[in-house]
Design a protein that fits this description.
Blueprint (H helix, E strand, L loop, with lengths): L1 E9 L11 E9 L12 H10 L4 H12 L3 H14 L12 H17 L1 H6 L4 E5 L22 E2 L6 E7 L7 E9 L3 E9 L4 E12 L6 H45 L6 H12 L12 H11 L2 H69 L23 E9 L2 H13 L5 H7 L15 H18 L3 H11 L2 H20 L7 H14 L1 H5 L5 E8 L5 E3 L4 E3 L3 H8 L8 E2 L7 E4 L1 H4 L4 E8 L2 E8 L6 E4 L2 E4 L9 H13 L3 H14 L6 E7 L3
Antiparallel strand pairs: 1-2, 2-5, 3-4, 3-9, 5-6, 6-7, 7-8, 8-9, 10-13, 10-19, 11-12, 14-15, 15-16, 16-17, 16-18, 18-19
Helix pairs in contact: 3-4, 6-9, 14-15, 19-20
């Protein structure tokens, strides 16, 4: 059984700034039992599960049964290869493989949130890599000195563990606990539990804290770490609140400025009196006291001239006109006052609305943060909270390791073989199967070889998407081939082509039109494939791998300066490329899809071009996307090998292998004489 020791402690104020409360933590020490009547083989894990589901026995039994019946090999493969494509503790770069990495990231977080019991049962099969980096590949200055440690990757040797439970109070959730699982006396993994009795959220952290030396009181380290996390959450809330206030203030000032512009100046009685006072202050015959002797004599001399009387007559006429217009001016002034009153009323309403929003802003931000915290299957502040430890001042020397890989295949395969040996054999079934060629492909009568090849390609694609689900496939094809759908697609495609043909690369709308083009092509893969005979390929750029960073070796990877210079000196392709027909030659899977059960990376070969199709079957509705850029090999002197291409591409792009960058430059371009591939834009061929 587990020995429990309870303590009371004061924790820092939670990030919401609510009332601080006393919390309880309990230390659970693993002590072997003579017998174990639980559903789980590991009694320590059983008692950990009992602690988590202490208030919901039914939910606990359902979860345990669900985990016992999981397909271990499937979980191992998906998690293993998801960790190859994505590391949840690093930010993804925005490139053409972003979707693949996001899917892999989702898989990792989902398993940590939903299948943590399976992972704990197989914890000794997990590998953790030394990770002194922040989310942007920045090294923690305090850990630079220990970067030369021998054990870059470590494992947990004993799956039995002690754990400390911290009750964080009920300020945010009905249930709000944090566990620290202690393996091998000095390896700590954080586990969070929150929510309600009916909806419990759980998450196993992907980071592990490795203490340099074992310490007598494990809680001292855990308490410092948890207080740092609480402070980090508090700062996150304050920063979010500050940003929200600033955004609200900016929006308010902008609207206020627009309303103030509606308020026009008014001609009030005070303004008129000021004008009369100004006029009374001028020297004139009507105001002789305002004139000097010389000014008065000059005005009197002008009075004797005929023109003076004409001017006087004109002034009289002007005065009459001013009198006639006075009523109109008064009406205009009334209208201005009315409009100003409305604008001032709007301004007052805006002020009230702003104050109300300001009063409720803290509650709004709290709710946004709660929603973010509940989303355990995505990378966010809370799921990545232990990744950036640059400002964590621990009282003990420690290293951070992160989940790197899982390897269950060997043990599961052995178990599979054992089960297979106990399965009764059928002599007749074995004899029948010996006559079946599972790779047999039959050519139909009167079918040309080009038609046969094309049909095989489409069957391969359809099988990758729907497998044996003929109902979904037929439904898709019927909807796609409907007259209304085809007419709409052709209309949209024509409009995109017109935009593409009329714009220059340097124009400001170029990126928007390219984005529209990418969106259409990627979503309408069958429409594009069925009209290849009408397609023209125009040059976009020479394709090379992007510069990357290998988090395992801690080094940047990229093409050599000599090769980059070689690419820069290449002339673009001025002539478009045309397909002779719409027949497809062959199809093959890239290395990326061969290691995932829920993803297919397909390459279609046609006339020295490769058309890339990605099939994501991780959800109920398959997602199929066509790469909007076709790979074209204009100078190849050899037949294109998809195997060679995808192997180099996979190792370079997903494993950041410098060796594969070198292989691309020397073997792919030179040795195999493929030369540089060009990325081509798909457009309609106009006669």
């Amino acid at each position: 059984m587990l020995k429990k020791i309870s303590f009371f402690l004061l924790t820092v104020t939670p990030f919401f700034g609510l009332i601080s409360c006393s919390s309880i933590y309990k230390f659970y020490e693993f002590i072997p039992k003579n017998e174990n009547k639980s559903l789980l083989k590991n009694q320590g894990i059983q008692e950990f599960v009992d602690s988590i589901f202490a208030q919901n026995e039914g939910q606990k039994q359902d979860y345990i049964i669900n985990q016992i019946n999981k397909n271990g090999l499937k979980i191992s493969q998906e998690l293993k290869y998801s960790l190859i494509f994505s590391k949840p503790y690093f930010r993804s770069i925005n490139d053409e493989y972003l979707t693949t990495r996001e899917n892999a990231n989702y898989t990792i977080h989902s398993y940590l949130a939903k299948n943590w019991l399976f992972l704990l049962e197989n914890i000794e099969k997990l590998s953790f890599i030394f990770n002194p980096y922040q989310t942007r590949f920045l090294k923690n200055p305090q850990e630079l000195e220990v970067e030369k440690i021998k054990d870059k990757t470590i494992k947990i040797s004993n799956k039995n563990f002690d754990f400390i439970k911290i009750n964080s109070g009920q300020n945010q959730f009905e249930i709000n606990n944090v566990y620290y699982l202690i393996f091998d006396k000095n390896k700590f993994i954080r586990f969070t539990v929150f929510g309600s009795k009916s909806e419990l959220k759980t998450k196993l952290d992907y980071n592990m804290f490795y203490l340099d030396e074992e310490i007598p009181d494990k809680f001292l380290f855990i308490n410092s770490l948890e207080n740092w996390i609480n402070e980090k959450e508090k700062k996150y809330f304050q920063n979010k609140l500050k940003t929200a206030r600033e955004n609200l203030e900016d929006e308010f000032q902008e609207q206020k400025s627009l309303i103030q512009q509606e308020i026009k100046p008014e001609n009030t009685d005070e303004n008129l009196e000021d004008e009369e006072e100004d006029e009374a202050g001028y020297c004139s015959l009507e105001n002789p006291e305002k004139c000097s002797k010389e000014q008065l004599e000059f005005l009197q001399s002008l009075q004797k001239k005929p023109t003076f009387h004409k001017v006087g007559q004109i002034n009289s006429n002007i005065s009459l006109n001013l009198v006639k217009n006075s009523e109109k001016l008064e009406k205009d002034a009334d209208q201005t006052r009315l409009e100003n009153e409305k604008a001032k009323e709007k301004l007052k309403e805006l002020e009230i609305e702003y104050q109300n929003q300001l009063e409720n802003l803290e509650t709004k931000v709290e709710q946004e943060i709660l929603n973010e915290k509940k989303d355990l299957e995505k990378s966010n502040f809370f799921t990545n909270i232990t990744s950036d430890i640059s400002d964590f001042n621990s009282p003990f020397k420690f290293y951070k390791y992160s989940l790197y890989s899982i390897d269950l295949e060997k043990s599961l395969e052995e178990e599979k073989k054992l089960n297979k040996n106990t399965t009764p054999k059928s002599t007749y079934l074995d004899k029948y199967n010996s006559f079946v060629d599972k790779k047999l492909e039959i050519k139909k009568n009167n079918e040309k070889i080009e038609e046969f090849s094309t049909r095989r390609v489409y069957e391969y694609i359809f099988n990758a998407i729907w497998k044996n689900n003929d109902k979904e496939r037929i439904s898709f094809l019927n909807n796609y081939h409907s007259k209304q759908n085809i007419e709409k697609l052709e209309k949209d495609w024509k409009l995109i082509n017109q935009k593409m043909a009329s714009i220059n690369r340097n124009e400001k709308d170029f990126d928007l039109i390219i984005a529209e083009y990418k969106n259409f092509v990627s979503q309408n893969w069958l429409f594009i494939l069925e009209r290849l005979d009408k397609i023209s390929l125009t040059f976009h750029k020479w394709y090379t791998f992007p510069d990357q960073f290998n988090e395992v070796t801690g080094k940047k990877v990229g093409h050599s300066p000599k090769f980059k210079e070689y690419v820069r000196n290449q002339e673009p392709l001025f002539e478009p490329f045309f397909y002779a027909n719409k027949f497809l030659e062959s199809i093959a899977e890239g290395d990326t899809s061969l290691i995932l059960t829920t993803f297919k990376d397909l390459y279609i070969l046609k006339q020295n071009t490769l058309i890339n199709l990605k099939v994501d079957i991780s959800s109920k509705i398959p997602k199929v996307t066509l790469n909007p850029f076709v790979f074209y090999f204009p100078k190849t002197k050899n037949k294109i090998s998809i195997k060679i291409l995808t192997e180099i591409f996979h190792q370079a792009l997903y494993h950041q292998s410098q060796e594969s960058y070198n292989d691309f430059e020397k073997d792919f371009v030179e040795k195999f004489r493929y030369n540089l591939p060009a990325q081509m834009i798909i457009s309609e061929k106009f006669s």
